[in-house]
Amino acid sequence: MKVSPARIAAFEILTKIEHDKAFSSALLPAAEENLEAKDRGLCHALTLGVLRRQLYLDRLIEKLTNGKKLDSAVKIILRIGLYQLIYLDKVPAHAAINDSVNLAVRAKKTSAKGFVNAVLRRFARENTELDYADEIERISVETSHPRWLIERWTRQFGFADAAKLALVNNETPTAVFRLTAKSDENTLTILSKLNLETVESGVVSNAWKVFGSNEILRAYAAEGKIYFQDEASQLVAQIVALEDGESFLDVCAAPGSKTTLIANRKSQIFKSENYILDFRNQIRNPKSEIRNPIVAGDFYQHRIKILQANCRRQGADSVEIVRYDAEKDLPFADESFDVVLVDAPCSGTGTIRHNPEIRYFLRAEDFAFLAEKQLRILYGASKLVKPGGRLVYSTCSLESEENEAVAEKFLSENTEFEKITPDAFGRFATAENYARTLPQRDETDGFFVAVFKKRRVFDKV
Ligand SMILES: C[S@@+](CC[C@H](N)C(=O)[O-])C[C@H]1O[C@@H](n2cnc3c(N)ncnc32)[C@H](O)[C@@H]1O
């Protein structure tokens, strides 16, 4: 009885996600470290593939088993088996079925061996068709999003856009990398010889979409010479647009994707060798070092560690890192920063392309709870902004309760702040003067950004 390491790893990851609400983005890289190159790809494809098709696979399982109540391990094994039979042309049916049966034995579900075998063989033999009560149910099942989420998006975007969003959420997003403070004059030269197709980002500067991967790219990322970050997340950091000499606090900073980009914003002018040399001289010569303090904090110790590691890896050494609870008083004097970013904890519905499991973790009542938390953090952070300074509020949520509603409530209760136009390309501007990216429109994650300016005493109305 032998099961491929890729299938064992995928089964273990999917089990952790199901039972502990863990995230594939954390579990996959950890598991893949222990896999040989040939198994990595299959483990990745099985884990993300099953997560992206879970509701559809479950409906098939329900039909194939006549609604039998199943043990969770058996259900996960059937999901993995069916996924291979439907979507992985290169895996022969007998291999998918045999490995599923062996996986059942390995998972100490020996009594379910025959059952797993029978269900998968029935699927391979028969044409299993599903029925839907209406179009919402069809989109919900075929794209594997809970019905209530499709209904909510239909109310917000209309049915056609909600359906498109659900479809693109299941596509593998193109990887995008940007430069860091550790990038040097050789980085771009070497990257241009990767033998991989790269396309310069049309959303942010100094970022490239890359199709495929190889050892050099992985090594550069591991050394912090490049950093993989969705274009929409980079856009938020770009909107912060820190000027020389401005002090900055990133209130909810871990894992540090935006902190590091903002701290290394000089890397944004990497356009030619000259600029690169300029930049290198600056960081080597303390006199010309950027002297604006950059402070980044978070609540969770384990996330602070990732933030520290990320800053170190990318050469963002000047960032001061603090731990606090931003829902309570922050440990800084009032009006002590020129710019404060609240990249708030949110539902993450704009990042389902990267985190497919989010759709199964969310409950309809979460949004109101999150909006209250976001407002508490925003109120506390607003006290730290100097008169004339900026408060930037962002989320990776698509939901208006966490976005426009939070921004409008904040403004209505904090009249010393006024809304200003985010410094983003016009196509991301909304009618209400915010910036938004949408997966179904922009092929990026979905982010929301509001920029508020604190009036000076003489500006006050
Ligand atoms: C959207 S994530 C931030 C992502 C980060 N800005 C980046 O670009 O890498 C929100 C962060 O808020 C943190 N957080 C949640 N509650 C918090 C609190 N009460 N105080 C401080 N940070 C908190 C979470 O730990 C999480 O790291």
Write the layout of secondary structure elements.
Elements: H1 5-20, H2 24-33, H3 37-64, H4 72-87, H5 93-106, H6 113-125, H7 135-142, H8 147-157, H9 159-168, E1 175-179, H10 185-192, E2 197-200, E3 207-211, H11 215-223, E4 226-228, H12 231-240, E5 248-250, H13 257-263, H14 273-284, E6 294-298, H15 301-313, E7 319-323, E8 337-343, H16 358-361, H17 366-382, E9 385-395, H18 404-413, E10 417-420, E11 435-436, H19 439-442, E12 448-454
Parallel strand pairs: 5-6, 5-8, 6-7, 8-9
Antiparallel strand pairs: 1-3, 1-4, 2-3, 9-12, 10-12, 11-12
Helix pairs in contact: 1-2, 1-3, 1-4, 3-4, 4-5, 4-6, 5-6, 7-8, 8-9, 12-13, 17-18
Task: Let me know the average pLDDT.
Answer: 92
Write down the CATH topology of the largest domain: Rossmann fold
At the fourth CATH level, what is the homologous superfamily of the largest domain?
Answer: Vaccinia Virus protein VP39
Rg, Å, rounded: 24 Å
Query: Helicity range of the residues?
Result: 40-55%
